[in-house]
């Protein structure tokens, strides 16, 4: 026959405190655990349960008996609801339903996560700005500009731009409608200087848009130039470009015959 009713207890999970006293000749017993009242224990003398009216709780750790013990007497004390040992649950047996309240970060193997190179405590907050598009400006024109020398002349696109943060990057996309108006057997090469506040920040070079004298004829194409700028300011800056024929006096035109040229500026959060 089973020694319990209902669901079997977890073996070894809770051990009830108990105490056995022999060879005492006192009229009292000293307790291993403090109690607040006699209702916290059951006392047996020689396997006979003692009535609490015959006992006196002298201190929190001493019970005075109704009589004096002899050496052959056996006293047993059971502490009610006193857990003195616990058993660690097996790995994988604790579920979300068993957790209540909050768990201190210090109790976790990883108490923080790293965002943009900075540690953020779990339960905390951080602003993630990297890669976010903060603003966009686009300028388009069909205004024709021409150069017929190896000296720079101003282009047809100029845009004021105010970054919202000094740590921002500005992605620049310049697209030029180009016409190489070659009428004689001379080399021709479009060279573009992209500028911020009249200072060059990027140059296309002298050979990236080149036409050899061996080819005597006109050429039209769209030239894209891409640059990633770091203005390091929240004050207004001006982006524009200059261009020239790096190789001869052959005519180079931008936006001839109403061809559209554009400048697009994207502010990217750091």
Outline:
With 270 residues, the chain is an all-beta fold.
Walk me through this protein's architecture.
With 270 residues, the chain is mainly β. 0% of the residues lie in helices and 48% in strands. Strands 10, 11, 13, 17, 19 and 20 form a six-stranded antiparallel sheet that branches. Strands 12, 14, 15, 16 and 18 form a five-stranded antiparallel sheet that branches. It is rod-shaped and about 135 Å long. It starts with 13 loop residues before the first strand and ends with a strand.
What keywords describe this structure?
20 strands; five-stranded antiparallel beta sheet; mainly beta; six-stranded antiparallel beta sheet; 0% helix; 270 residues; 48% strand; rod-shaped
Number of strands: 20
- Uncertain runs are none
What is Rg?
A: 45 Å
Strand content: over 45%
Number of helices, where a helix is a run of at least 4 consecutive DSSP H or I residues = 0
Q: Give the structural class.
A: mainly beta
How far is it from the N-terminal to the C-terminal residue, by CA?
74 Å
The average pLDDT value, as a whole number, equals: 86
Shape: rod-shaped
Secondary-structure element sequence? EEEEEEEEEEEEEEEEEEEE
Helix percent reads: under 10%
The largest sheet, given as strand count, sense and whether it forms a barrel, is: 6 strands, antiparallel
List the helices and strands and how they pair.
Elements: E1 14-22, E2 28-30, E3 41-45, E4 48-49, E5 56-59, E6 62-64, E7 74-86, E8 112-115, E9 118-121, E10 133-141, E11 145-147, E12 153-161, E13 169-181, E14 188-196, E15 199-203, E16 210-211, E17 219-229, E18 237-245, E19 251-254, E20 261-268
Antiparallel strand pairs: 1-7, 2-6, 3-4, 3-7, 5-6, 8-9, 10-20, 11-19, 12-18, 13-17, 13-19, 13-20, 14-15, 14-16, 14-18
